[in-house]
Amino acid sequence: MNGHDYVATTTLMDSDGGVLVEAGDTCGDVPTESLGWLSEQGIIVPAFARPVAPDPAPVPVSDDSVPVEVLDDSESEE
Amino acid sequence: MANYGSNSVAFFIINGYDVTGVSTTLSDVTTASLEETTGLGDAWQEQTSTGVRSAELSAEGFYNDGTSSIDAALSGSQQTSKVVSYAYAGGALGTEMTSHAGVFAGTYSRGATRNELTKANGTYTVSGTKDEGVVLLPLASVTATGTGSAQNNDASTASGGAGTLQVTTVTGTSPTADVKIQDSADNITYADLITFTQATGRTAERKTVSGTVNQYLKATYTIGGTAPNFTAVVGFARG
Questions:
Q1: B151 vs A: CB within 8 A
Q2: I want to staple B164 with a disulfide (CB 3.0 to 4.6 A). Which of B9, B99, B219, B228 is the partner?
Q3: Do B186 and A10 touch (CB under 8 A)?
Q4: How far apart (Å, rounded) are the C-alpha atoms in residues A46 and A5?
Q5: How confident is the model over A4-61, as pLDDT tens digits?
Q6: Residue from B204, B107, B215, B103 nearest B153 by CA
Q7: What is the pLDDT of residue A75?
Q8: Domain end residue (candidates: B107, B131, B155)
């Protein structure tokens, strides 16, 4: 894990009360060993979320077992 | 475990009014509501818990009309909900601190007797919960920004909790105090858990959180103004 990949949702401090990062900043100064629980609890979130690919368009399914009615204009009476 | 005497009562604070020194007795009672469910044919009486608990609080002491004392805290405000905090066990970091929100001074009585000091007694009706927690910031004067020591609970908890701030005295010019409770899973990095409303004078506040409360807790305070001096105590009760 790399702190630069995460953004803090709140101010994070060290045990002496020194500010590590402010809310909205990347977490490069957050000790690596803390990133796990901070991420699990949603206190830090990924800085760059991967774009979500749109769902592929549905493919039409042809069903040959269903007879297709063909209109025959030649038999129509005027 | 230890026994404690009256000299171990570190504070008894009603909405920011520290009435420890004018109080002679303090008693809190928690009662579980039961309903008798004895039926025909039963040989012994049966009781079943309704699942509801209630808390009561009472205190006796000396009548004192100081601006920071018992009369100022209770007279004329019986119908106002208060935050009350007290500590039976010395009031050091990590020792027991009990707080109630929704405390109404149902009765406040003053009585004079020949050859005695005038007494002031209060009986309090509590609407809501009783927070049995620990001290995070012992009652003391703070004059500059700082942070309290960590309180180790040995494990995280999952049911939230309630933090209480009592500010008893404030001096200085335009003094401000921004008090927070922070938690940590590793005692290395701390995140904000509770942010109290900025204090500029005597105040009391209880705030709750839900979800995970990590193993370590501590209080931090950012002090502003000219020659500020706050006397405050902070506690937290896990749910």
A1: no
A2: B99
A3: no
A4: 6
A5: 899 999 999 999 999 999 999 999 999 999 999 999 999 999 987 544 566 666 666 6
A6: B215
A7: 52
A8: B131
Q: Does B184 touch chain A (CB under 8 A)?
A: yes
**Domain tally, chain A:** 1
Q: In angstroms, rounded to a whole number, what is the distance separating the alpha carbons of residues B229 and B222?
A: 12
For B116-173, how does the pLDDT look when each residue is reduced to its tens digit (9 = 90+)? 999 999 888 888 889 999 999 999 999 999 999 999 999 999 999 999 999 999 999 9
Q: Is A38 on the interface with B (CB under 8 A)?
A: yes
Q: In the block, which residue shows the tokens 């005597």?
A: B202
pLDDT at position B18? 95
**Structure tokens given for A71:** 């209109």
| Domain match, B104 and B21 both | yes
Mapped to the 3 state alphabet, what secondary structure does B30-75 carry?
EEEEEEECCCCCCCCCCEEEEEEEEEEEEEEEECCCCCCCHHHHHC
Candidates A25, A34, A38: best to mutate against B (most CBs of B within 10 A) is A34
Q: DSSP secondary-structure letter at A33?
A: H
**Interface touch B185/A34, C-beta < 8 Å:** yes
Is pLDDT of A63 > 90? no
Domain containing B106 equals 6-33+49-131
User: How much is the ipTM here?
Assistant: 0.77
Inside any domain, residue B87 = yes
